[in-house]
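step 3/5: co-fold with heme C
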Amino acid sequence: MIRRLLAAAVTLHLWIAGPGVVADDPYPEGYVGPDACEACHRAEIGAWKNTEHFRGYARLHKHARLDSILTTVAGKSSPRKNWTCTSCHYTMVSTRGRNARAVSGVSCESCHGPGERWIDTHWRPGPYMTHDREPPEHKRQRLADAAQHGMIHSTMLYDLARQCQVCHGLARDDVPVDKLALMFDAGHPMDPGFELIAYSQGTIRHHLDGTTPDPERTPLELARLFVIGAAAKLVSASNAAGKVEHPKYAAAQKRRADDARAAIGAVAHLPEAKALLADPSDANARKLAAAVQEADVLQAVQALLPSKADYR
Ligand code: HEC
Ligand code: HEC
Ligand code: HEC
Ligand code: HEC
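step 4/5: write tokens
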């Protein structure tokens, strides 16, 4: 009886809300938008304004291929309101999932995690304590607390690389994979050759400490980033490839996976790399990411690193 009442209530709700509304507005919560970071992160905001992530906001809704891509997915016909598009293209600020609006394109929180639960604490050693007086253990705990509340720190390279792959691999868990495959068929772009160094060390780079002009990463740091990026790509592509039989999409995901395997193959002397190749999971990828942070992988991957001319 209770179950039937519940079913009736759900039906009534669907009827009142109209078809599609329940499934069409699952906007994520907890985003505050880039304006909230600006007062303290002027340099990073400045760098970001020079990226396609920032520019896409003013441009996407006017794109020539927009309509053919939009008609493949259900829902609202403005990309700023259709949650399939907003999930990758915009920063949505809402009040507990309601009244969501696109405040910018891909921005700080798209990579560093929704900020509501850590913005006030990630930077503050606490009352009566300045940054230079803060004991290392206190700082470690402060950053760990922020991570607990969803912050993806600049040192969490695997998690950052994973964020890129979710969008750039057309491989979101929270969008039905059939939709992604249909969009891809309709001409939605996707570069199976996405490689983390080439994509992150050009316009996107904002390794700014406020005193020196944007120091470049060392060759060894780049080599590590290369392997970590490939690990994230392999896990993402393997998950996506297994989910749908759509030929064009499945072939592109296979290309991503093969590409990543070739890169990881270069460090196959590491047991963690072998384990990841045999079983591409987040857990195994994290182990490889931790291992390369300790290992000298420069020799092994040097020949595969992109040249600066290819940085985007
Ligand atoms: C929330 C989704 C999302 C995330 C996360 C994301 N991107 Fe993007 N990225 C996009 C979209 C969408 C565009 C295209 C913007 C446009 O043209 O409208 C783009 C464009 C780019 C471009 C310019 C494209 C080109 O062909 O030159 C680069 C470079 C790039 N992203 C790098 C990265 C890197 C590196 C990461 C991870 C550190 C990352 N992105 C994370 C969605 C994302
Ligand atoms: C899984 C993430 C994802 C989803 C979902 C998504 N996009 Fe994209 N979109 C991207 C990325 C990443 C790029 C940039 C690709 C590149 O340049 O390599 C992009 C690029 C585009 C471009 C080309 C932009 C340019 O400047 O050339 C159009 C148009 C586009 N998307 C439309 C849409 C529409 C419409 C939707 C909703 C139906 C949508 N996208 C949903 C990730 C996504
Ligand atoms: C496309 C993904 C992406 C976006 C968007 C993004 N970041 Fe980052 N951020 C990263 C990555 C990756 C690193 C690590 C970069 C490195 O060390 O080379 C990083 C590093 C940082 C750092 C540490 C810098 C340092 O000197 O080590 C800060 C602070 C930061 N980001 C703040 C921001 C702010 C504020 C915004 C918005 C204006 C933003 N980020 C937008 C991916 C992103
Ligand atoms: C009130 C000032 C303030 C605001 C607002 C602020 N930050 Fe920060 N942020 C800081 C300071 C100060 C640091 C350096 C903290 C330290 O030394 O540990 C920092 C550090 C960071 C770092 C690097 C720390 C790490 O280990 O990766 C990132 C990333 C970051 N902030 C992102 C953001 C983003 C994204 C926003 C907006 C959602 C934001 N911050 C808003 C002051 C602020």
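step 5/5: annotate
Confidence is low (pLDDT under 50) at residues 1-24.
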